[in-house]
């Protein structure tokens, strides 16, 4: 999948270099107030690099497309002339002829019938803060059961005002969203064609 920011005019690349760097704090002197401490008086929503936000993914989409094209072109050219010459009862004839024809026919038909249904949640980390205050988030989750590994990845750009008071956000409010759900294991190996068959499919001329 393409990196987050590919669809923007300006090239924005997420940066997590300052993820674990302590934020600078002003010397409070004798004050006992600690602004970095989480308590009931602070906003629990994600706002800075390293904060965590929960992304709710509930996709239930379906799409059906169908189209057909039919194109036909034909052309034909015929030309010729007849020339006769008679001398002393001898007749000579000349009949050049030229004939040309062309025909082109194109037919195409295609259809798409697709449906996706995913409902899950994942915690993402703020990896960068854009100059306008928007947050770039990225999160991944792995669950392994026996020999099957399920992989879930999510990334995108979030507006702070779209984050709810429970510190959650829906996937449809994430710009440049990149959601990947899949896995690998024994079942995936059975579903995939054999290696030599994949090579043959790529190299076959027809």
Task: Report the major sheet.
Answer: 6 strands, mixed
* SS class: mainly beta
- Round the mean pLDDT to the nearest integer and report it: 75
**Which blocks of ≥5 consecutive residues have pLDDT under 50?**
6-12, 16-20
State the total count of DSSP E strands. Answer: 8
Strand portion: over 45%
Order of helices and strands: EEEEEEEEHH
Approximate shape: elongated
Q: How do the strands of the widest beta sheet line up side by side?
A: 7-1-4-5-6-8
Please report the distance between the alpha carbons of the first and last residues.
29 Å
Residue share in helices? under 10%
Oligomer: single chain
Give the tally of structural domains.
Answer: 2
Radius of gyration: 34 Å
Helix segment count? 2
SSE blueprint:
Blueprint: E1 52-80, E2 83-87, E3 90-94, E4 97-129, E5 135-145, E6 148-158, E7 168-170, E8 175-185, H1 186-191, H2 195-203
Parallel strand pairs: 1-7
Antiparallel strand pairs: 1-4, 2-3, 4-5, 5-6, 6-8
